[in-house]
Amino acid sequence: MTVISATQENPSRERAEATILAAAEEVFAQHGYRGASLQAIADRAGLPKANILYYMGSKQALYVRLLNRMMSRWNAVLEDITPESDPHTVLSDFIRTKMVLGQRYPKGSKLFAAEILAGAPFLNEYLAGELREWVASRAAIMREWSAQGKMDAVDPRWLIFLIWSSTQHYTEYSAQVSGILGRDALTEDDLESISVFLEHVILKGCGVSVPAPKPSANAPQVKK
Amino acid sequence: MTVISATQENPSRERAEATILAAAEEVFAQHGYRGASLQAIADRAGLPKANILYYMGSKQALYVRLLNRMMSRWNAVLEDITPESDPHTVLSDFIRTKMVLGQRYPKGSKLFAAEILAGAPFLNEYLAGELREWVASRAAIMREWSAQGKMDAVDPRWLIFLIWSSTQHYTEYSAQVSGILGRDALTEDDLESISVFLEHVILKGCGVSVPAPKPSANAPQVKK
DNA sequence: AGCCATACTGACCGATCGGTCAACACAATC
DNA sequence: GATTGTGTTGACCGATCGGTCAGTATGGCT
């Protein structure tokens, strides 16, 4: 049985699909689902339009495949968080991870943003299901942090939204940011400066103090 | 000379144009420039497609008119700010004004967001011109605040971006926010809660203390 | 050589795109 | 009643949309 059944490892197929996905991500990110055309995607991929449909089936299938790929990239974020964790470490990591993710996958982030702007027609159930659970569980832990005096008694949902919005801004609004700064793109120094700023303001703003040098027990650190 | 020359006060014309602008703002906000169709706008306005073009000339003219209308709404923001101003009052007003603007013009805000996502093809010169000057002048004043010890020595550009992003998030990502919160829309209480949270975190995070009851002189308030 | 499954694509489909235009409706003026 | 300017719209234009399909090219197997 030397036959490769289907959808299995095929180097040529995988290369073609990767090319298409990259081209499509770019076009969808710029113009949204309705505004993107298969012809534009095909041109950017250097393939005939019919080839796109041969591999992807339909415009919608290609689009949801890109959405799913992007969603799976968030999965590692804020994964290991417990009531005993140190808020400073966790939130600091959260901010930096989000900044890095946005820079690593700018097209995917913009694609996601366009989908939300359009009213999330393809992500409604994901938002009201998986993601909602994700937020609720993290929020519950953060509330325990507040009860333990590790941070101010802020609404953790607003805190999560704050970190999302402030980090994503630099990828989704990159055209605005670079237009205002007068650069073509953000430099490494810019990104580091922004990360330091966000850590400073958000952590200080939530009353999170620097972690105790001994991360052994959950020694309460009184603040305010 | 009873003849109304043109483009002057004409109640019927103004009513028609207002209807068209409202419908177009909605469609453009949802699908972006490319994704929006004149037919969809016409349907939402309850007018034949040819009528849209009679009043607006072209799809592009209609779009830039909406953009300009939205830009003019930002003008009042952070207008009266001086090195002698109290940071707490000014930044607090800034945050609340931005929140209110986003709630008052949700369609316009999303339209703007879609334009930036697409790479700001129609707003490039505005971003690199007017808006850039706007940010630079405000940033200079904030740097003076820092020098006076009124707030931490943070980069004021990142601070402005932080306030923009964190407030706009609730209008442009309303689909995500309400999906996660399990509501159709944000309530008045939500908005007040969010405003209080953002004021708390951002002001505290920047080391801005509550204003002195006497707003007469710039008495330095040591913090840190 | 013959065969067959997969890869690939030019040509075409009906629908819709932004935009034009001629025809018509209607009120005000002479 | 005839004229004129503005408002209004159905019908139509070439271009492009997402998608289908028949046909060709290709490489591994017997």
Automatic annotation (TrEMBL), chains A, B:
GO BP term (any one): negative regulation of DNA-templated transcription
PROSITE patterns registered for this protein in UniProt: HTH_TETR_2
SUPFAM superfamilies: Homeodomain-like, Tetracyclin repressor-like, C-terminal domain
Pfam families for the chain: TetR_C_3, TetR_N
Chain segments annotated as transmembrane: none
Sections of the chain in a coiled coil: none
Domain HTH tetR-type residues, every copy: 14-74
DNA-binding region: 37-56
GO molecular function, one term: DNA binding
Swiss-Prot/TrEMBL keywords: DNA-binding
Protein name, as recorded: TetR family transcriptional regulator
Organism of this sequence: Halovibrio variabilis
